[in-house]
Amino acid sequence: MKTRYILLSLALALSVTSNAQAPESNYRRSSIYSLLVNHTEQKFANEIREAFMQIPVPDKFNDHNLSVKVLNMDKKLAGANKERENPVITQFLDDNRVASRLVGRWFNRDYFTGQCDMELVKERGLYNATEFDKQLAARSARGMAMLQDAGEELIGNTFVIVNDIRYVDKEQRSKTIGGILRVAGGLAGAFAGVNVSNLVDNVSDMVESVKGFKVKINTFLYRLDWNEEQAKLFYQEQYAAQPDAKKCANFDKARGSYHLTYVGKVESSGGNTSFLGINENEPLVMVRKACQRAIDENVVDLQREYEEFRTKSPLVSVEPLTAYVGMKEGVTAKSRFEVLELVELENGKHKYNRVGVIEPINNLIWDNRFMAVEEGAAGATLGYTTFRKVSGGEFSKGMLIREMTK
User: Fold this and answer.
1) For residue 303, how far is the Cα from the chain centroid?
2) What is the value of pTM for the model shown?
3) How far is 29 from 95, CA to CA, in rounded Å?
């Protein structure tokens, strides 16, 4: 019965979060595959795994997840505090041909027949489906440019993030604090002439079970290699619009030629997460909140560190200037965003022109972090962040904004 209550609480938290933001207009996003390194020997390993499986891909990315999302390990990764890539993670990605699997998913490739299609490319690239098919069928210069554009803007912006989550054991400290509360509560009750032991025990238990939970996460970032030569080889020798045994075999033989490039890593601070809004009977929600907030922080840090990973968001209104970004995306009063206009060139390719700069208004920054509403955080009910213009001309709804870094 208790397990059922916990699962219902988690489902409720998920539904509240998923409905907190209105749908955004369509725009081109990068794609992401998110993995967990689960240390099976550590405390709360199962809970961390279950919580991670509930965490969605950040909504500024397309979900490009594969069937395997968890890499189980029975020991701590060596060199976790170093900036270089971790050889164990890289070896896992290479051994399991993850790069080729990501390519196959882009083209809805059938593992057994080799049959592919362009439906996902058309959908994520926001191409006119009829025009796209017509130009490709005619093998026109415009059609080839559209394919090249799709490669650069879509397939080439496919990323893998590997989250090495480590539980920080603060149990002893929490028990010490709980013991102090019990002593203090007993003294207070004695002086007041009342029995407050039950109340103190409840508070102490909450401190022990909730305040002791803390995680640190190393997030490793990889990018799918997709260049003109590789694209040409794929379309000519491996792409099959109909079942084709030869092209199916060609792709299988070439799987080792697809690669991921290591970009970099960041580590969460492991700071304390507020567990307001969660009671002691909701441990899975508690674990998810700690993990999701730390992962979101790392995604923001990676975007600030590596420009190719930086996301865009559309303006949803211009009077006032608003967008569906907030504290989850690292927005502060010091943030600045460039406003971009998407331009389609005559040959079918796209480019972005900067048309201005905006900054958030301090007390109108949306706190869209996981469970911010439940904990009563300031700005949690805003629904969007409001900006002021710093420079530029006229802005239009749907123009994209991207954070500027120093």
Assistant:
1) 11
2) 0.81
3) 28
Specify the pLDDT at position 277.
56
38 neighbors 49 (Cβ within 8 angstroms):
yes
Quick check: 211 and 275 in contact, CB under 8 A? Answer: yes
* 101 compared with 126, residue with greater pLDDT: 101
Q: Report d(CA 147, CA 121) in Å as an integer.
A: 9
Q: How far apart are CA 251 and CA 231, in angstroms?
A: 12
Up-side HSE of residue 330: CA atoms within 13 Å toward CB? 23
Q: Write down the residue that tokens 């439906």 correspond to.
A: 119
pLDDT digits (tens, 9 = 90+) for 242-283: 999 999 999 999 999 999 999 999 988 766 665 555 555 666
Q: Tell me if 254 sits within 8 A of 82, measured CB to CB.
A: no
Angle at Cα 387 formed by Cα 382 and Cα 389, nearest 5°? 165
For 395, phi and psi rounded to 5 degrees? -105, 155
DSSP category for residue 120: H
From the DSSP assignment, how many helices (H) and strands (E) are in the chain?
Answer: 12, 12
pLDDT digits (tens, 9 = 90+) for 141-168: 777 777 777 777 889 999 999 999 888 7
CA dist 175 and 209 (Å) reads 9
Name the strand (E) or helix (H) holding 133.
helix 129-137
Tell me the C-alpha distance between 29 and 12, whole Å: 28
Q: Which residues pair with 388 in a beta bridge?
A: 359
d(C-alpha 24, C-alpha 94), whole Å: 35
Find, among 274, 304, 399, the residue nearest to 343 by Cα. 399
